[in-house]
Each structure stands twice: as C-alpha cells, then as structure tokens.
Amino acid sequence: MRISGKSVYKIRKKFYNIGMIKLADSWEQYEILATGDGYKLERWKDTILLRPDPQVIWRAQQDLFSYPDLAAVYHRSEKGGGAWEFRKKLPESWQISYRDLKFIVKPTNFKHTGLFPEQAVHWDLTRSLIEKRISEGSVPKILNLFAYTGGATVAMAKSGALVTHVDAAKGMVERAGENARLSGVESGIRYIVDDCKKFVQRELKRGNSYEAIVMDPPSYGRGPGGELWKIESELFPLVEMCAKLLSKDRLFFLINSYTTGLQPTVLNNILRLTLKGGRAEAYEVGLPTKEGISLPCGAGGICVYD
After folding, report:
1. What is the pLDDT of residues 26-59, one digit of tens each?
2. pLDDT in tens, 249-288
3. pTM of the entire structure?
4. Shared domain check, 266 and 165
5. Looking at residue 286, which CATH number applies to its domain?
6. 173 and 213 part of one domain
7. Is the pLDDT of residue 224 over 80?
C-alpha cells in the first residue's frame, strides 16, 4: 500500500509527540558539564560534583574524574549505597537560585543534593497556569504529594497559590520550609508530615477539595508507619482517589516519575483513564548538557483544564 506524503507527515508528527522531551534549559547557576560511563559532571553554582546516573550508559568523551576544580565524587558501593569522596573542603550546605527562587543544596549519603534541577520544567509550567488563574480573580488551592524539599511547593506558592505540602519524611518537610523562607515565601503553605495515601483518604472523608494536584511518587518506599509503596501497584489507585479531590474549578493534575522503564505513555494513559474533560499530555523530562546532548531525567504527565 502506498502512503501519501500527507499521511506520512501525520504519522511522523504523532511519533514525535510521543517522544517529546521538555528540557529545563533556563538555569544559570546549574549545568551538566559532561557525562559518560555512568556519571554526570555537574556545576552547582561554584561547586563541581560528579555523581552516578543510571541513564548514562554511553562512553565518556573525557576523563571526568580528573576534571579541574572537581570538589566531590560520589562512589557507589557493591554492597549498596555509597559515599562521597571530598577532594575540596565544602560547606555543609550552600544556596542556589533559579529565577526568583532560592534553594538549599546539601549532598546526602544517598548521592542526592536535596534538589532536582530538571523539575524547573514543572515549576515554570505550573506557575504560568497559576498566574493565569489568579489574573482571572481566583486563588487556587493545590495539593503537593511526595513533596520532598519543596521545589514545586515553593515555586507554586511564590506565584500566589495556597499549597498543602505532604511528605512522610519530617526532615524533608523542614527543608521545604527553609527553602520557602529563602525564596521570600512566608505564608500560603501548609506543611504536613504524613503518608500521602492516608492523607488523601482523610481529605476525602473531610470533604476537602483542591483546584490542582501535583505528585512525585517514588518507585519504592515506606511511610512513617511502615506503609509499603510500590509504584506499579499503587500509582493508578492513588490517582483515582486524588481525582475525587479535584474541585469543579479544577486547574491541572501533574504527575512526575523517576521510575526507570515507566514510559510517558503510561502516565498519559493513567491521566486519561482517571480524569475527564481536560487536555492530557506526557513527555520525558530532561536537562541539556554542554556536550550538546540531552540527559533524560524521568517522565512527566499533566492534564490541564482550560
């Protein structure tokens, strides 16, 4: 069968939409300098760190471990976990800015720094939707689940939303409060230390509702009471429950996932099956590198109500 040029164009356009990647390319104080051999070389303001990344399966184009001014390297252990090798004396923590937001950077024993720079994609996206809604005369209430150190919480509150920040780790919730204060956000955020699923169940019983919901669920974890979470079995029913919390004036529903192998189409399917009336899309989330390539950092999906 011969396919017309017009049909070929439609097929290609559909393919590219499925494979779309949204890049957090507006950073000034963060950048990926180089990648390879399972590592990414990053600049966090004035500090150079080298950390493992499971997506980096290609060969390094230079010796990353000999990079000038390299301050610290995270080495994985064959027994699990790992440790930092500090080559320079570093402060326990320091600050980094993105647009009008400020965050604490603090290397942890689990290779993380307390901030995921690629999430600037979602900070910008949600802020634009919030600011449009506020310009129309309404202040949205937003629920942020698995909210970690509050990157999304601070961004949304900075734009004027009322945010309920929920995470099972007390230390992460406290860090979120610090990040909010650094960014000049003194009000508009309610901090909750709780298991996210149980909190949603209680909110449904209370009859509470939100105009928007954001969630960044882990692949695997446990709540403060030992509650088991596995994303493959828990994500869909949680989104189903959360959909019932959306108000009549709903604005958006956003899911972010770092789970390797969880394709954007999976998030798109979940949104389409659980939410009605909105425009759903899903995509890769990533960061540009100075090498001229993009580093994939997970998947995102959003359903927007105009």
Report:
1. 999 999 999 999 999 999 999 999 999 999 999 9
2. 999 999 999 987 789 999 999 999 999 899 999 999 999 9
3. 0.91
4. yes
5. 3.40.50.150
6. yes
7. no
Q: Tell me which residue range forms the domain holding 90.
A: 27-105
The token pair at 56 is: 């980096």
